[in-house]
Design goal:
The chain has about 190 residues and is an alpha+beta fold. It is about 20% helix and about 35% strand. It has one domain: BB2672 (60s Ribosomal Protein L30, Chain: A), CATH 3.30.1330.110. It contains 3 helices and 7 strands; from the N terminus they run ββαβααββββ. A hairpin with a 2-residue loop joins strand 1 and strand 2. It is elongated, with a radius of gyration of 17 Å.
């Protein structure tokens, strides 16, 4: 696929409601903006070429995300796609299937849980909230979160944006109960 650009966004939060936390909550999103080969064309039943292309693209951007997350381990993940207005929502959805998800799991050192996902068509410069959930147990309530992503000059009408998102821990000051992450993994969050 023709890649126009790749964007890496890092958000790091040190305190919530005046309560500092250690380690901070780091969220990383990597967005690949690619040309949509089906943009402006008549309905296409078979979108498997997009799904196949997502594997190499996923490997490339998840490696960038992994590097941006260091020194922390990836505890939660989510994925998303955005499609320019000359394409269909399904064009993006075809690129964030299990094949793409498996590249995300590999980058996170494995993951047993389903990967939260969303997709939408949008104008250039739109905003999408990428859902996050714990990589090994979907019911870890503290890790239900989002990362808001805005791409200033994308997607153009004939583009697709593919997004991988990771976090090193759950919400700051999590205290509403439920399954806890440290019951699944160590609680230091370091690699």
């Amino acid at each position: 696929m023709h890649i126009r650009k790749i964007i890496t966004a890092i958000e790091e939060t040190y305190s919530e409601a005046g309560q500092p936390e250690d380690p901070p909550l780091r969220k990383v999103a990597v967005i690949a903006i690619v040309k949509n080969p089906y943009s402006g064309k008549a309905y296409q039943e078979d979108l498997s070429s997009l799904t196949a292309a997502s594997e190499a693209l996923g490997t490339q951007i998840t490696e960038l995300a992994n590097n941006a997350m260091k020194p922390y381990a990836m505890q939660s993940y989510g994925k998303a796609s955005v499609v320019g207005t000359a394409g269909e929502q399904q064009h993006g959805a075809a690129m964030v299937t299990t094949i793409y998800g498996n590249t995300m799991r590999a980058a996170a050192g494995g993951g047993a849980a389903w990967i939260a996902s969303t997709s939408k068509r949008m104008d250039t410069g739109g905003i999408i909230d990428v859902p996050l959930a714990h990589k090994d147990a979907l019911y870890v309530r503290s890790h239900y979160d989002t990362m808001t992503v805005m791409i200033p000059d994308a997607p153009l009408p004939d583009e697709i944006g593919i997004i991988c998102c990771y976090a090193n821990r759950g919400q700051l000051n999590a205290r509403v109960g439920g399954l806890e992450a440290n019951a699944i993994i160590g609680d230091d969050g370091l690699t």
